[in-house]
Design goal:
Two copies of one chain form a homodimer. With 173 residues, chain A is of the alpha+beta class. Chain A is built from eight helices and eight strands; from the N terminus they run H-E-E-E-E-E-E-H-E-E-H-H-H-H-H-H. Chain A has a domain of 99 residues: Jelly Rolls, CATH 2.60.120. In chain A, strands 1-8-3-6 form a four-stranded antiparallel sheet. The first copy, chain A, has a four-stranded antiparallel sheet with strand order 2-7-4-5. Chain A binds a DNA duplex (30 and 30 nucleotides) through helix 8.
Chain lengths: 173, 173
DNA sequence: CCATATTTTTAACCTGGGTTAATGATCGAT
DNA sequence: ATCGATCATTAACCCAGGTTAAAAATATGG
């Protein structure tokens, strides 16, 4: 069975208004979410009260808290709709079980997890090796459309700096 | 078949002297490496000539460049032995192929990739949300043994700061 | 055990981005 | 169209960590 067919079959489609949370930091949530429509942000509320954005999520992405879904721990971040959204939520635990007896599902899982891991490694690289300004320049180059879709405040929080800092960077040459 | 049995069967055991590179940034390398003995570092040579350390690798860890192994691109980092090492190298492409027809291998792949992805997310969190000082305090708490095994220079490069910076942090109360 | 290399610390000075706060620009709901 | 809320910019000041360089402490190979 095709992976998307699988998700449609085992999952539940839900409609969410802009501003709604799928889950909040501290919740337990065993689901992954396939995004059919809309944009979301996954973000941390830091100890000092500030927010930083872990990632933006777009149509066809899959998002969820692995630590909560796989280990049963609490979500380390919150997931919020930046626009009205249509998503299919499905159980990660069930997916792991189903993939353990269905080779096709397992293959898709391997592919999905490998690509996910590579994305996380890229982000790690950017945060470890690049200055905030370099990260911004790279984003402008690699995802110019993203800049149109979310506020500059959120871009700053994604880059790990403040909106004031980003405004300064933009107005440097 | 057990996963470790699989690795032993398809892989090649190699002995490496301290200081040897398994691969260098810019190489193509399709292998994953299971570490039987020794400590290694995965590190970037940044554009400005500085080095930053992506991760330390210990016995029973598996390390390789996913982007090179899975996508055939060049390795974005180098992998070097910090001590004499015994490792088993095996092809990632072959692993993916074998896992596509062997459910047991596939299950292990899913487990391995999920745990790997969670580790990368934890690192992302630390780099995005914590100050260098907080990252150091966390490391002291979570991996005190690591501090004994590698130089302070390398700890600094792992935290994303300079050795001078780390020395200062240590000598703050 | 000595000589050399590497690691760690210290000091002086610098800079990117944080903080606070005020101002203006936009957006959205009524 | 208007009001309040959010967003973006600017300015003044601050600070964590970078840079350079030198000294002190440790390792390491012969």
């Amino acid at each position: 069975m095709d992976f998307f067919e699988y998700i449609k079959q085992v999952g539940n489609e839900i409609i969410l208004e802009k501003g709604t949370h799928l889950f909040r930091q501290g919740d337990e949530n065993e689901f992954l979410h396939f995004i059919k429509e809309g944009t979301l942000k996954a973000y941390y509320n830091n100890a000092d009260g500030k927010e930083t954005i872990k990632s933006f999520i777009m149509p066809n992405d899959i998002i969820g808290s692995l630590t909560s879904a796989y280990l049963g721990k609490k979500c380390s971040f919150s997931l919020k709709c930046l626009s009205d959204c249509k998503v299919i939520k499905f159980s990660f635990a069930k997916l792991v079980i189903d993939s353990s007896t269905n080779q096709q599902i397992a293959n898709k899982m391997v592919e999905f997890l490998t690509i996910f891991a590579m994305k996380k490694e890229q982000r790690e690289y950017e945060l470890l090796c690049l200055s905030a300004e370099d990260r911004y320049r790279l984003l402008v180059n690699d995802k110019p459309d993203l800049l149109e879709m979310v506020t500059q405040n959120d871009i700053a929080k994604y880059l790990g700096i403040t909106p004031v800092g980003l405004s300064r960077i933009k107005n440097r040459q």
